[in-house]
Amino acid sequence: MTKPTTKPTESREIILDVLMEILEKGGYSHVILRQALEKYQYLEKSDRAFITRVVEGTIEYRLTIDAILDQCSKVSVAKMKPVIRTILRMSVYQILWMDRIPDSAVCNEAVNLTIHRHFQGLKGFVNGVLRTIVRQKDSFTFTDWSRRYSMPDWLIELWKRQYPAAVVESMLQAFLEDIPTTVRCNLDKASMEEISDSLERQGVEVTVSPLAPHALLLEHYDYLDGLEAFQKGWIQVQDVSSGFASEVANPRAGDQILDVCGAPGGKSLHLADKLKGTGLVVVRDLTEAKIRLVEDNLERTGFTNLRAEVWDAREFDPAWEEKADIVMADLPCSGFGIIGKKPDIKYQASPEKLQELVKLQQEILTVASRYVKPGGKLIYSTCTIDRMENEDQRSWFLEHFPFESSSLTGLLGESISEETLEDGYVQLIPGRYPCDGFFIAAFQKHKD
Q: What domains appear along the chain, each with residue ranges and CATH number?
């Protein structure tokens, strides 16, 4: 990571504002950070990279950072003023995880921020805490997984009840690894060679995904919107695991497909691409704002066999009763499988919210099942690793509706080899595969 080229305080002022919105006001990290980067487009690429790294890293390691602060400060993190707490958190991240920034510079900039935010009386406190951490930074070791991997205890215990301990630790490690941007290539628009050549001409480091030949891993680019391949609709940001849901759907020419919770439209765009101009994909979601995201992607990619509509998936639409060849049900979930990309998920989750999500999923599945024509397919998917939302929901659905499992064998390529494929479902685990945690189950409706 190169040092920022603007005045150091300017970048850190932006970081402080972004972290205050996320950590103190509950904003979504990917939304708040994206808005900030768009606002400060005039900054050098290295400055935006610095801002991104500190924001994401501070959120990711928040529990570990707080444990260190509580160990080195006479005032607990919980009792600190929000601005001071945030300045200390972002500074600790820089001291412990960013070797190229001198510790003295981090401390000085933290003091400057404290003064700029009108807490001059606390500059000595901020400086003293950080200097203590600098002196002791080689001694911070944690044996408990919560502080070592910055994960809430209750989540670790939940996963330990569902998976072997070695699998859980592998997931925790994977969540903290750097993740390249994964894009799916719209091969009905351009060839892999055209897409790769275009990206490389713009200085992007391109690697073909080891899991899917139609997916690329992108690194060292500036703005995605500035890439020719993105502007022309040749690529769509989508993790390989999410793309597998459309591979499992395996549409045939002319199919009528309903995606009941589809924003921002990645799976629907993939299906439209696979249909090669035939059939129809109708993608729905709850709000105008979400459907605008789909329409933005649709305008950029230019697919003519896709339509976006506002609709509450809990409400039955008689116009679609037993009309769909395929129903896609990628439903609201805990999102535990994408904690590596959206680390604030782990702080916002709770056991109570999990139970609410399970009920919501069942409510939507009950409605969605009515849209599938006899012999048609329903694809249920989530971006989580929680068995209550995944395997347990699959069992519940098979018990209550006239469907049977549809084998996934041969639909996910050679890299995915799970015994459950023949049974019609797969749980992708971070650490086992280089992708998000994702669950997919395929069902076929009885013909009689």
A: 8-141 (1.10.940.10), 240-445 (3.40.50.150)
Peptide bond into 82 cis (omega under 30): no
Please state, in angstroms and rounded to a whole number, the distance separating the CA atoms of residues 381 and 330: 5
Question: For the segment 288-313, what is each residue's pLDDT rounded down to a tens digit?
Answer: 999 999 999 999 999 999 999 999 99
pTM above 0.90, yes or no: yes
What is the sign, positive or negative, of the torsion defined by CA atoms of 303, 306, 310, 313?
A: negative
Nearest to 308 by CA among 324, 293, 291, 325: 291
Q: Where are the alpha helices (DSSP H) in 176-314?
A: 192-201, 228-231, 240-249, 266-275, 288-301
Token digits of residue 281: 């994909």
Q: How many CB atoms lie within 10 A of CB 213?
A: 12
| Predicted confidence (pLDDT) per residue in 13-32, tens digit | 999 999 999 999 999 898 99
C-beta atoms surrounding 395 within 10 Å: 12
**How many Å apart are CA 429 and CA 159, to the nearest integer?**
12
435 is a catalytic site residue? no
- Choose the catalytic residue: 72, 107, 185, 383: 383
